[in-house]
Amino acid sequence: MATATLSRSQTQTQTQTQASTLAGPVALLGRFLFALIFIMAGPNHFSSQAIAYAASVGVPLANVLVPVAGVIALLGGLSVLLGYRAKIGAWMIALFLIAITPAMHQFWAVADPMMRQMQMIMFMKNLAMLGGALLITQQGPGPWSLDNRSK
Questions:
Q1: Which of 32, 46, 72, 88 has the most CB atoms less than 10 A away?
Q2: How far, rounded to the nearest angstrom, does the alpha carbon of residue 72 sit from its chain's CA centroid?
Q3: pTM (2 decimals)?
Q4: In the 3-class helix/strand/coil scheme, how is 13-60 assigned residue by residue?
């Protein structure tokens, strides 16, 4: 019986060691994949097309708010990617998504069934990203990050 307990304990220790070895690279990859959309889309918020589209769906002061949203998305994405003040960066992304999602993806108001489906998908994608951002606000960036460089 002692042998079985010892073996089980050794197996648990080995599994924990493997998990902690993978935690850094997996968290870094996750942050990269999560942040990529915000970093790539941020500069697009300065284009006249993006501002015009936001204005067409009823965003007030689109010529000011759309570029501001782009800065928030870009800074939040870079913060999460680098793991530098990642919890603050994730809150920036969360606030961005809370403001943008219902304003830009009003699927309930679209008459064309195909466009309604597309807007609903975009709305749900944003909700999923909001969930990821909220997780980062609470769990942090993981071991391979600038926030944890001295730990």
A1: 72
A2: 12
A3: 0.84
A4: HHHHHHHHHHHHHHHHHHHHHHHHHHHHHHHHHHCHHHHHHHHHCCCC
